[in-house]
Amino acid sequence: MIIRMTRLILLLCSLLALNCHADGLPDLGDSSQEMLSPQQERQIGEQSMLQIRADKSYLDDAEVADYLNQLGERLVANCGDPTQHFEFFAINDNAINAFAMPGGFVGVNTGLILLAENESELASVLSHEIAHVTQHHLARMIAGQRYDSLAAIAAIAVAILAARNNPQAASAAIYGAQGGAMQRQLNFTRTHEMEADRIGLDTLEKAGFDTRAMPEFFERMQRATRLYEGNTPTYLRTHPVTAERIADVDNRVEQLPYHLVSDNINFQLVRAKLIASLRPADEAVAYFTSALDKQKFGNPIANRYGLVLALLRNNQNQRAVQEFAPLQTQAISNAILTTLEGQLKHLNGNTREVTDFYRTASERFPQHRALVYDYANILLQQGQYNEALKLLNAQLQTRGNDARLYELQARTFAALGRAQEEHHALAYNYILHGNLRGAIEQLELARQSGNDYYELSTIESELKQFREIAAAQRRKN
């Protein structure tokens, strides 16, 4: 029996249980309403995320996403509203940007991650975005608007993504979605920004980060505007950094005790991974080789990790294995490094050794998704389908909205000849990627592929719900 996905399915179903308009968004009642409920904020954010996950710029990398969420959770635990649910994700774009959406969704461009010189700088941006969410700044701007304005939020979210490299295209997208008035409504006010600075700084301090990082990072972004020849970086357009704001944060920092903060090694490893994967392979190899030879910049462990990744991308597998060897003696036990070690062992083709390695590693790091994905793939390649299914079902008990797990589960069901469950799992994979039409098609195939009464009743119910959502979307368009 397939493990059911949790929060997203419940969300999609709840959209139909509420009094909805043709746009699929909840009826907010009187247009003079001052605030959205937390449930309404979450629904708007979820609908926006369906489109963002389907966008090619969405970075579907488990290790980057897990790191951002671990960092974010540390900050959220020290913010004013630790009960607010958050999800942090990365956008594959070198533009300097980060943004928050209603319901606790926070996006970070790879360009901003790479610009940050230490973990406290990245944390300072996340804490600022968290404050925008906990203070409901965007929700306040949306609330009280007409329903057609509210319905445009999903399109506005995509327009935010479009703003990365082409501000003119972004403006056109926003105007096309709802007009210039909505663009102005979505710009944070100076009061919002200063409040997010103040609360974000408090969160940063309570979470144990270097508070000086916030004004220093803001100042560096402000200085960088001279390099853009009048094209201000996206983050500075949506979060205007003024001299007044920097001075205010500086003054607050002066009142706080100073303490030296060391980076989490995962911050350095994630940055190295982004450099290794986003630059041309040969350039990345040269970059990390130079960094290790000169030993003048970067973390040596992270630089060697990046070099091994770049060598693998450049099809220099033998050298990659050789360069990884020092890490086994230099580095402490780490899930990201262990995952890379498993990938290198897999190159050698020793089936028993590889299987034993992954079994032990997954017991040491049961929450590291990249390691779990690799282990499941190894089991499938070796024909150990029941073991793979056992692993995936256990993961889905706690990660019911993980699209990759459903894709792996579908492959496992296909190998076992369980077509109904294969298509059912693929339906969940598709909906988590924002592909409602594909999810409906897979549910229809699942209905035709088996005769398990309980499974069929669930499929029929989901088909009915998904078709109603699709019909609501067609009426909106």
How does the SSE layout of this entry go?
Blueprint: H1 7-17, H2 38-54, H3 62-76, E1 87-91, E2 98-101, E3 105-109, H4 110-115, H5 119-134, H6 137-142, H7 147-151, H8 153-162, H9 167-177, H10 180-185, H11 190-206, H12 213-224, H13 234-238, H14 243-254, H15 265-278, H16 281-294, H17 300-313, H18 317-324, H19 327-330, H20 335-348, H21 351-364, H22 369-381, H23 385-398, H24 403-415, H25 419-432, H26 436-448, H27 453-476
Parallel strand pairs: 1-3
Antiparallel strand pairs: 2-3
Helix pairs in contact: 1-27, 2-8, 3-5, 5-11, 5-12, 8-9, 11-14, 12-14, 15-16, 15-17, 16-17, 17-18, 20-21, 20-22, 21-22, 22-23, 22-24, 23-24, 24-25, 25-26, 26-27
Structural overview:
By secondary structure, the chain is an all-alpha fold. Among the domains are: 31-254, no CATH class; 265-329, no CATH class. Helices cover 68% and strands 3% of the residues. The chain contains 27 helices and three strands. The protein has helices spanning 7-17, 38-54, 62-76, 110-115, 119-134, 137-142, 147-151, 153-162, 167-177, 180-185, 190-206, 213-224, 234-238, 243-254, 265-278, 281-294, 300-313, 317-324, 327-330, 335-348, 351-364, 369-381, 385-398, 403-415, 419-432, 436-448, 453-476, and strands spanning 87-91, 98-101, 105-109. It has a three-stranded mixed β-sheet, sandwiched between helices. A hairpin with a 3-residue loop joins strand 2 and strand 3 (105-109). Helix 20 packs antiparallel against helix 21.
